[in-house]
Amino acid sequence: MATFLYKLGRLAFRRRRYVALIWVALLALAGFGAASASTATSSSFSIPGTEAQRAFDLLDERFPGGSADGATARVVFKAPGGEKVTDAANKAEIQEIVGELKSGSDQIASVADPFAAKAVSQNGSTAYISVSYKVSSMELTDGAREALEEAGEAAQSSGMTVEIGGDALQVMPETGATEIIGVAVAAVVLVITFGSLIAAGLPLLTALIGVGIGVSLITALANVLDLGSTTSTLAMMIGLAVGIDYALFIVSRYRAELAEGREREEAAGRAVGTAGSAVVFAGLTVVIALVGLAVVNIPMLSKMGFAAAGTVAIAVLIALTLVPALLGFAGKRIMGRRARKAAEAENRPEAKPNMGTRWARFVLRKPVWVLLAGVIGLGAVAVPAASLEMGLPDDGSQPRSTTQRQAYDLLSEGFGPGFNGPLLVVVDTKGSEDGRAAVDRVSQEIEGIGHVAAVTPAAFNKAGDAATITVIPEDRPSSVRTEDLVHEIRDAGRDVKGDTGAEVLVTGATAMNIDFSEKMNAALLPYLALVVGLAFLLLMVVFRSLLVPLKAALGFLLSVVAALGAVVAVFQWGWLASLFGVEQTGPIMSMMPIFMVGVVFGLAMDYEVFLVTRMREAYVHGETPGQAIVTGFRHGARVVTAAAVIMMAVFAGFIGSSESMVKMIGFSLAIAVFFDAFVVRMAIVPAVLALLGRRAWWLPRWLDRVLPNVDVEGEGLRKELSDGGPAEGGGERELVRV
């Protein structure tokens, strides 16, 4: 592989104008496609194989036109102190608003008069209007939202409190200014690392081109592939981080080759042949982790993983082709004056060891203490992970200042905490001889279960072969008692089916959240086994070792659990919540842990490959295990540190997003990269390698013969070059003296 990539790097360097033109053309085409595409809507959310999803599918079939998956809203009214909503003036005001809403938008499916629908609290202080839409929240027009928001203004002027809840007010996530700050921090780190504006700007430029192509393609295909509104944001987050890092490693190796006196084209070829090999395998681990999300069998999560994996693949291709092409345009300016002086000083025999060298020597002297400090420190941070509670956000998790949260609280006060999480029981009576008797039996069974506040009369469809029953729990939607209630109703439904033949299904937002969380929990271990197993095999091929991949996997698990502990402490317990802009604590979003595991595993393997490959390269070329560790840190520690800081800055930039999932993922990825890069890869890894010695690179002979030799460390390439192989091709012969 190293030889092929060496030739590719030289070709891209020589034909730089054509290569640059191709990538610019691809960016323009993708941008044109994105600009021509219709506005993306929200991704249809489904959880195949769950009872809640089967119930939704049955509703669509038996209650056509019911808009089971359409947006909903509740306009909540509370009368001033001493008054009731049933007073003549207040009642007339509310009924007038009902009429305004009915004529406010053709996207409205139904508007329920609170006085006819008995949507008035027992004390008469609170009432609500239920509004159902024909389309999802992301498909609502601005006019429909404005009509909803303006509905209660007249009532407010008369003294009533009016708040609006429901997903109809959900909008596309806003881009935070901190995302731009993250890129700015990355630029500063690159300038400090390279000491040259040209060298610093090149990784940023190539990363932006790659992200531009990836996000534009996602935007262009959003409606065709039913991609969610957060898909492009997450693809941009990951693509930008890996794009900068991959280009950073190629540019850094190119400068190192120039510092040894090689010609520019030769340096580009060697940089792509060696560092490029690490980029390919690092990118493969990220792609494996992201594509592996498909095992969860949740379409939305699978599409997010595939979209992000595509952006990573583009970043790898750009690093292997566009980066060497732009290095050809940069000329001598890729090395600033300070960088040239620093390179000359570092190459002198009497040169002072750099920070990476000094740290590696310290670890070699105290490997046990460094290992214990790293493991105990991460273990302490991981403690809160034992209290992890997962769920999906509702209006109760919104900041208290929002109208959605205030409507939620008003409904809880007026009708009870369970009113915000009603359960919808769907009864399929096709297999029953007496459908109405079966439905009555279901209602009686539910009324006999504890923690039920109310059970509404059954509503049959026109054909009379299906009915719905709304159940109001006593407790809030995210409580353990409500979760137990869902399972108790399902258990009772199985008994009913055995006796009558009628199938009983429980659905609704609350039941869907419960099923989603349970499915994510069940998928986590199989997903870990698949991803870690495939990556273990890949790293075994790269490092020709059994213990190095095992150490990499165990270190990753340690950093992930520590990151989960930090997420629980901030987003669930509220520690330092105000510092990170977390206005409301609550359960951790169900998809966050498994998504974080996938992304962090890929990124963790990046640092493992980049750092340990250099050690492996030194060991293969004759150095002792201890010397190889020092060599790896001397050449790689500065660059890996810069790459980690850049990734942390990019991910942390997304903490400013208005989308709670993006905010949480941005924080979790930033803190996970910190733990993995600076504690696991920079401390635990060299300590373990120091303790293992030559055993770290042991591989059974039979396995060595079976595994393909991908030559990541470039040993075969060096032999070919020393024999006058590929390097004898044409190209520029300008010698850069540094």
From TrEMBL:
InterPro entries hit by this protein: MMPL_dom, Mycobact_MmpL, SSD
Topological type in the membrane: Multi-pass membrane protein
Residue stretches spanning the membrane: 180-200, 207-225, 231-251, 272-298, 304-331, 368-388, 524-543, 555-576, 588-607, 639-658, 664-692
Gene3D superfamilies for the chain: Multidrug efflux transporter AcrB transmembrane domain (1.20.1640.10)
Keywords noted in UniProt: Cell membrane, Membrane, Transmembrane, Transmembrane helix
Stretch forming the signal peptide: none
Annotated region described as Disordered, given as residue ranges: 718-738
Subcellular location: Cell membrane
Residues covered by the SSD domain: 204-329
Source superkingdom: Bacteria
Main subcellular location of this protein, as a coarse class: membrane
PROSITE patterns: SSD
Family designation: Belongs to the resistance-nodulation-cell division (RND) (TC 2.A.6) family. MmpL subfamily.
Protein name: MMPL family transporter
